[in-house]
Amino acid sequence: MIRDTQQSISHPLEALRRWEHGHHLFFVLIQSLIVIHDRLERALRNQNWKLADEALANATEVLWACSAAFHFTGDFTSEVFNEIVRVSMEPPHERAGFSGLHSADHTILLKNMKQLGALLERLPQDLKRRHRAYLWAIDAMYESHAMVCDILVGNRPSLKMEASENEASAPEMIRNLKTRTLKLAGNPSPILTRTQRPSMFTIRIDDSVFKQQPTFRRGIVIATGMQNQGANLDLEQMLRIACLDAAASPVSLWAHPHFAVWADAFRSLGVDPKKFAPAHLALRKRLQQSGGASLPFINKAVAVMNLSSIEGMLPVGGDDLTAVAEHAHLLELKCATGDEAFVPLGGSDEQHPEPGEVILAAGGLVCCRRWCWRNGHLSRVTDNTTLLAMNVDGLGPDSETRAVTIRDRVAALLREYCQANTTTALLSPESPEFQFAL
Amino acid sequence: MHGTIVRVGRRLTLFSLGIHLLAEKGPVDVQTHFRPYCLYLPPPTSLAGAPPARSPVIRSVAEQFLELTPVAPSQSADRDLDALMRSLDAYLAGLTSIASTGFNEKQRLYDSHFHIIRAGDNALDLLVAGTITAFHSFLNDQRQGNSLQPVEIAHLFSAAQLIVELLIQEETQR
Questions:
Q1: Closest Cα of chain B to A41: distance in Å?
Q2: ipTM > 0.85 for the complex
C-alpha cells in the first residue's frame, strides 16, 4: 500500500484517539473474518464451490480493508507514537509485554485458520486464482503492518519482544508472523514479492535420494535467452532418424543395462516399473513397438530432449524456470510428504504424490512425479519458454560419464537450434546443489 | 453494569495520561477529543455458526447504514449517522455484559485497554452494532485529516458495507 511520508496527526490526544479507534476497526474486521472463514470452511467441506468462491472473495476484501486500517491507525508521527502512544501501553499503565497477540479475537482467527488450511491446500483448479488473490491480500496486510511499525518504531523491538529481551525488530517479527499465517492459509509455496524475490535460483538433489541411489548423477543445462518458436528441419530430421534407428536396433528393455538399472531402482523405491516406467524406457518401448513411427514435433527444446534421451538411453527432462520462479526459487528432487500438489501435463485435476515418492518439487508444487515418470503442467516447455533447466540423469557404474556426455550434447543442441546461452553443472553426493542468477 | 465501570475507569486513566503529558502545553478539553463510545462485541468463540442478525432494531439500523454509506459520506449523511448511533446506544444500553468470559488475564487486559465490552445475546447482532460503531468513529476521525490514499478509504467503506450486508443475510445453500 502506498503511504505518504507526512502523517496527519501531531496532537497527542488525537493520536491516542486514532490509536483506539483504529483498533476498534481491527476488532470488527477480525471478527468479520472469523465469520467469513467459518462460512468458507463449511462451503469447502460441503464442496459448495460457489459459496466457497464468494467467501474467499469476501475475505480478500476484508483483508484489504485491514491493510488500510493499519495505515489509518498509525497515521501520526513517530515522535507522538513513542512519547505518547507507546507509553500508554507500558508500565505502569499496562503490564510489561503488552501486545496485539493478546487479542482473543486474533487468537481465535488463527485457530480457525489452522483448520481451514488443509482444505485450502486442496482447492479445485477453478478456485486457485481466487485463493491466490486471498494470499496476496494477507501478504499485503502484514506488509502494511510492518511498514507502519517501521515508520513508528524503526528497528526497536515490539513491547512484547522488549519484555522478553528479544532484540528482533518489530517489522522483523511481523514478517515472521506473515510467513506463519500464509502457511496456515494454505500457501502452497512462499509468495515472493518484488522486494523479496531472490535473484538466485537453486537446483538441488536431497540427500535422501543419493542415500537410496548412490550412483545417481544429474547433469544440468541452464538455457537462457532461448528462442523456442518455430520448427527446424534439421532437428526434425535428426529426431526422425533417431526414432528409426531405435526401432531398427531393438533391445531387451528389462535386460539392457541402461534400462534395467532404472527398473531396479524404481523397484527398490516401491514403484512398479511396468506400471510407472522411467521416461526413457517408456519412450524406447513406444518406438520399438511402433516400428520407429516418429514422435510428434512439439517444439525445438522438446525435440532436443527426446533426441538426447533416445540416443543416450537415459532420462532427459526439462522445466520452464520462468513458470517455476513464480512459485519458488528452488527446484528440488526429494521424497514427497504427500501434501504436495501435482497437475499432470495436459490435465487439470490436481493429484498428490505418495508419501516417500521421489518428486521434482518447486515449493509445494510438483513438476515431475516418480523421479522421471511423468511431467507436470506447471513447468511444461512451450514455444514461449525462454529460460529452461534441462536435466540428464545417469544411474549405474558409468553414470557420471554418460550424464556429462549427454548433458554437453544437449547444451550444444540448445545453443545451435534455440540460440540459447547455456551453463552446465553436475549434481552428485559431493555437490548436490547448483545455484545461479536468474 | 460491569462494562460501564470498566469504561469510565479506563477512560479516566487514558485521559489522565494524556493530560499529564500535555501539562506544559496548556489545558485540553477532553470532551472534544473522545467520543463516549465503547465497543460492544460478542466473544469470538460465539461467532462460528451464529444465525444472522435478527433484532428488528439492528436490522433497521443496518439497512439505514447501508443506504447512508454508498460512497464517502456527505455532511448531511453524517448527521443521519449520528442519529443511527443514538438508536444503537439505546439498544446497547439494554445488553448485559459478560466480562470477557473464558478469556485469560492478558486477553481481558487487552480488551480493557481498548474499551471493548463483551456481551451476550445474538453474536451477529452485536457484531453489526460494533461494525457500525467502529466505522462511525472512523468517519469522524478521518475528517480530522489523514494521509490515506483514496483507494484505502474505498477499501474501508467497501468492507463496512460488505460486512453489514453479510451479517444480516441468511446463508443460502446453492
A1: 10
A2: no
